[in-house]
Amino acid sequence: KHVAVLISGSGTNLQALINECAKPGSSAEIRVVISNKPNVKGLQRAFDAGIPSIVVQNRKYSSREKFDNAISEILEEFQIDTICLAGFMRILSGGFVNRWRGRILNVHPSLLPSFKGANAHKLVLSAGVRISGCSVHFVEEEVDSGAIICQESVPVYSDDTEESLAARVKEVEHRAFPKALQLVTSGKVTLDLENNKIIWK
Ligand code: GRF
């Protein structure tokens, strides 16, 4: 299957996906990397792997829909089947999500449905929970609410900072995201569009 990875930053998850797709027998092939920010490290990672990358700067579009349409056009052009949001820090419009529904995966740095949103680690630390982790899920219009494909947990230590917790969670993201991608591109996991539930084959 043809995969696009959308990023906004360092792209360590992108790197994990690149490494996974390079393995023999991978059912996923990354065709294009799209970043909404120029000059981020993830773009260099794409370049080093010989994957084409395109910068689509949201601030150059007058509306979210126009920005999302520009991304959709690229996805069509590269005949993309599956989209991975790997640290992509823009919320996609309902139109975009519904057009690609069941084919967009996101990695979130908490055990969903707890601690949704952009500052998950901060919420985890202030809630005082002793276990956190990551979730890879299908993307729905409502942020961080889609059906969960896989999760991995990590301990939260009493002296953790947002940074130390983020680093520990990223290690498991780098295992969970490639695994979830293979589950979807191999056809083992699909989204039941009517019930918003995972179907396992
Ligand atoms: C990850 O922790 C992801 O869960 C969050 O943003 C971070 C992206 O990191 N949404 P990277 O760009 O993949 O290194």
Task: Walk me through the topology.
Elements: E1 2-7, H1 12-21, E2 29-35, H2 41-48, E3 53-55, H3 64-77, E4 82-85, H4 94-99, E5 104-108, H5 120-127, E6 131-138, E7 148-155, H6 162-185, E8 189-192, E9 197-200
Parallel strand pairs: 1-2, 1-4, 2-3, 4-5
Antiparallel strand pairs: 5-6, 6-7, 8-9
5-O-phosphono-beta-D-ribofuranosylamine is lined by residues 7, 9-14, 42, 86-87, 107-109, 170, 173.
Written account of the structure:
This protein is an alpha/beta fold. It is 35% helix and 24% strand. The chain has one domain (2-200): Rossmann fold (3-Layer(aba) Sandwich), CATH 3.40.50. It is built from 6 helices and 9 strands, in the order E-H-E-H-E-H-E-H-E-H-E-E-H-E-E. Strand 1, helix 1 and strand 2 form a beta-alpha-beta unit. The model has no long low-confidence stretch (mean pLDDT 97). Bound molecules: 5-O-phosphono-beta-D-ribofuranosylamine. 5-O-phosphono-beta-D-ribofuranosylamine (GRF) is lined by residues 7, 9-14, 42, 86-87, 107-109, 170, 173.
Brief rundown of the structure:
The protein contains six helices and nine strands; from the N terminus they run βαβαβαβαβαββαββ. The chain is an alpha/beta fold and 201 residues long. α1 runs parallel beside α6.
Ligands bound to this protein structure = 5-O-phosphono-beta-D-ribofuranosylamine
The total domain count is 1
Shape: globular
CATH architecture: 3-Layer(aba) Sandwich
CATH class: Alpha Beta
Low-confidence stretches: none
Can you give the helix content as a percent range? 25-40%
For the largest beta-sheet, the strand count, sense and barrel status come to: 7 strands, mixed
Oligomeric composition of the shown chains: single chain
What structural class should be given to the helix and strand makeup?
alpha/beta
Separation of the first and last Cα atoms: 17 Å
